[in-house]
Amino acid sequence: MGKTKNAIRVLVADDHPIFRDGLRKLLEGEPDVAIVGEASSGSECIQLLGKLKPDILLLDLRMPDKDGLAVLEEVNFDALQTKVIVVTATEDDRDVVRAMRLGARGVVLKQSATDLLLRSIRKVHQGEIWLDQRMTAEVMKAFAKSSEGGVRREKPLLSDREKEIVQLVAQGYRNREIGEKLFISEQTVKNHLHNIFDKLGVSDRLELALYAIHHRLIDQ
Fold first, then answer.
1. Which residue in 142, 184, 138 sits closest to 165, CA to CA?
2. pLDDT per residue over 137-180, tens digit each?
3. Phi, psi for 74 (deg, rounded to 5)
4. CA end-to-end span of the chain, whole Å?
5. Residues of the chain with CATH 1.10.10.10
């Protein structure tokens, strides 16, 4: 099957050849997704990132020489177009929370259905965050434990405008883009976000996006 002109370019980093082969066969059948490289270690992954500049990195947390967390620590993903989805066999919430804190935009368990992996690639490429509902709940709990400050309110009284802003943040829009969409100034967006953070007891945009997923404020 031929690939579309703007197919999502994917780099796979995993030390298990059988898993990489399975992923390749899965993604080869999708016209809008293309594997552009494969790495079997963290060091090789970092080299290929600079060379290939993929749209999506599917990153295993357990690899020789440098694991996935070490890759996330070493690479400045803010300076790259590449968005990271952690693909892992572990359900260790501490690793997942750390990976998200280090810049991962999604986490998919290796035992998940293949259609979930494909949906995660497309959603994260669009700028959204991807976690399954169970994992989101666990990550939210871990964030709540580690955060300082007030108690998180389970049923906050958000205004309709605040709900609109939460949805747009969770969909990956920046403050300026949110302002343009809602016909308000960037400073007004920042003021709303300050109030939203205070009401929900979250400390940053990542926690806000996770809250939105957990409470089904956006569709997955």
1. 184
2. 677 776 666 655 544 555 567 889 998 999 888 888 889 999 99
3. -85, -35
4. 27
5. 149-214
- The answer on pLDDT for 220 being more than 70 is no
Beta sheet of 56-59, edge-to-edge order? 33-39, 8-13, 56-59, 83-88, 106-109
**Class of the CATH domain delimited by 149-214:** mainly alpha
Whether residue 30 has pLDDT greater than 70: yes
Mean pLDDT of 108-124: 88
**Three-state secondary structure of the chain:** CCCCCCCEEEEEECCCHHHHHHHHHHHHCCCCEEEEEEECCHHHHHHHHHHHCCCEEEECCCCCCCCHHHHHHHCCHHHCCCEEEEEECCCCHHHHHHHHHCCCCEEEECCCCHHHHHHHHHHHHCCCCECCHHHHHHHHHHHHHHCCCCCCCCCCCCCHHHHHHHHHHHCCCCHHHHHHHHCCCHHHHHHHHHHHHHHHCCCCHHHHHHHHHHCCCCCC
Closest CA to 92 of 67, 115, 71: 67
Q: Which CATH number fits domain 8-142: 3.10.129.10, 3.60.40.10, 3.40.50.2300, 2.60.410.10?
A: 3.40.50.2300
189 vs 212: which has the higher pLDDT: 189
On whether the CB atoms of residues 53 and 99 are closer than 8 A, the answer is no
